[in-house]
Amino acid sequence: MSVLDTLRATVGDAHVREGTDAAPYLTDWRERYRGHALAVVSPASTDEVAAVVRTCATAGVPIVPQGGNTGLCGGATPDDSGRAVVLSLRRMNRIRAIDPYNDTMDVEAGCVLQSVQDAAREAGRLFPLSLGSEGSCTIGGNLATNAGGTQVLRYGTMRELALGLEVVTARGDIWHGLRGLRKDNTGYDLRDLFIGSEGTLGVITAATLRLYPLPVASCTALVALSSIDDAVALLSLARRGLGASLTGFELMAGDCLASVTRAFPAQRLPFEGNAATLPWYVLLELSDSESEAHARERFETVLGDAVANDSARDVVIASSFAQSRALWHLRESIPLAEKAAGKAVKHDISIPVSRMAEFVRDTNEALQHIFPGVRHVIFGHLGDGNLHYNVAPGAGWTDIALLARQEAIFDVVHAHIGRVGGSISAEHGIGQLRRDALAQFKDPIELALMHTIKHALDPHGTMNPGKVLIADS
Questions:
Q1: Exposed, middle or buried by CB within 10 Å (0-12, 13-18, 19+), for 335?
Q2: CATH architecture of structural domain 3-88
Q3: Could you report how far apart the first and last alpha carbons of the chain are, in Å?
Q4: Could you tell me how far CA 368 lies from the centroid of its own chain?
C-alpha cells in the first residue's frame, strides 16, 4: 500500500487533498512563499495525527504542520520539492473542557482563537490573547510561534498562557501533558520547549490554557504625540499610575493610520486640526476589577498628567464600547492596509523600550541614505518592546525593486538591532524568512544546543524541515 493509500485509510478519502484542492494550503498569508506537497492531510483526532506521523516517519516523508495559515514568516509553507505532507489541524477544533474554578480550558490545536475567546467569555472568564488575525488563526499556530499580541504587557505570551500540552512526537508517540497546574517542578519543562518550536520538534495537538476573571470595566484612549520619546514617557507614566491594570499600549506612526483611512474610508481618526497629522499615536487600554467609575477616574488622572507635562498633544477617550472598538479597529487594520498597498520588507523585532527612539531614528536615517524614498511603516506593542518595523515602496520604488533589495535591507536593520541589544523576532517566529539570519544573533553555544535538541527529538529531520534552523551539513 502506498503512503497516500495508507493516509486515506487513516483519515478518510475526503481529507487527503491533492492538486488544485491542496493549493490554498501551499501559499503563506503574505503570498511570499509558495510550495508543493505530496498531499494535504487533515486528521480529526490526536490518534489520527499520531497514525499520520508514524506513516510518514516510516516512509521518510517530511511533515509540515499547519493551523490557520496566517503566519508571516513562511513557517507553515512546504518547500518546492513536493515530497512533504502538509498536516492541517483545522478539523481538530473541539473545546474539550472548561474548569472555571481552576481557571483553565482544554482546547484542540485547530480551535480558532476567537472561538476560544468566546467560549471563555460564555463561562464568565477571559482568555486574553488578542491578535489581528484572531478570527482565523488557531491555537496550535499561536503556540507554535509563541504568539504575543496586544495584551502581553499584562498577561504575557502563549508561554505564560499555556499550562500544559498534548504533543505527537516525530516518532508518532503521544505525550499526554495536559494539566492545569500552576506549579509542577518535576524535571525539564517540555511544555516551554515545544511552544515556539514552529512544528520542528513535534505536533502540538491540544493545550490547557490559563483563564482570568473578566474585567469589570475597561477604558480605551487614542493619544496624539510629537515623538517616540513622548510615547516612552507616557508609557512610564501609565505604568506608575495604572500598574497591572494597563493591558495595552500600542505605538503607531501617523503614516500607518493615514494608510488605514485611505484604504478603508469608513474609518477615520477622531482628531481635528494639527492633532490629526502628528507623526505618532498611542492606543492604550486599562482593565479594571472594581468599577467603571474607578477605571475612568484613574485613566483620566494619568492622561491629564500626560497632557499637563506635554507628553501628550491631544487625547480622545472612548465613551462607549462601540467607540473603543472603533479605536482598536484602526490599529488592527494597519496590516490589512499595508497589504493592500503592496508588498513590504517586514521586521518583527524586540528592542529595549529605553532605546526605541534611538533605534527608529538611526535606522530610518541609515535606510534613507542607502535606499532613498522608501517608506517606514512602523507600529507595534511598545509596552513590551515589540516593534513591527516594515519598509515599504515609496516614491520611485516598485514592489519588485524593493523585494530585490530585501537582503540588503535586512542587513541594515539587523545591524541596528544588534547595536541596541535587540532581537530579530519578537512574536512572529523564524520560519523561512529569518532562518539564515538566526546564526548572526545566537550565541554559538546556544545555537549548538538548539541543533542538539532538534536532532534528539527529530533525528531524521522530517518535522517541518527548512524552518528555524539551517539543516546540519
A1: buried
A2: 2-Layer Sandwich (3.30)
A3: 33
A4: 28
For residue 88, pLDDT over 80 is answered with: yes
pLDDT at 320 over 50: yes
pLDDT band for 473, please (50, 70, 90 cuts). Answer: very low
Is the CATH number 3.40.109.30 carried by domain 342-436?
Answer: no
Same topology, domains 95-213 and 217-335? Answer is no
Domain 95-213, architecture per CATH: 2-Layer Sandwich (3.30)
Of 278, 154, 113, 296, the residue nearest 219 (C-alpha)? 296
Contact predicate 204/144, CB 8 Å:
yes
CATH architecture of 217-335: 2-Layer Sandwich (3.30)
Q: Among candidates 254, 246, 259, which has minimal Cα distance to 228?
A: 254
Q: Are 425 and 385 in contact (CB under 8 A)?
A: no
For residues 78-106, give the mean pLDDT. Answer: 97
Query: Residue 336 pLDDT > 60, yes or no?
Result: yes
DSSP 279: S
Q: Name the burial class of residue 320, with classes exposed (0-12), middle (13-18) and buried (19+) by CB atoms within 10 angstroms of its CB.
A: exposed
Residue 185 half-sphere exposure, CB side, CA atoms within 13 Å?
Answer: 1
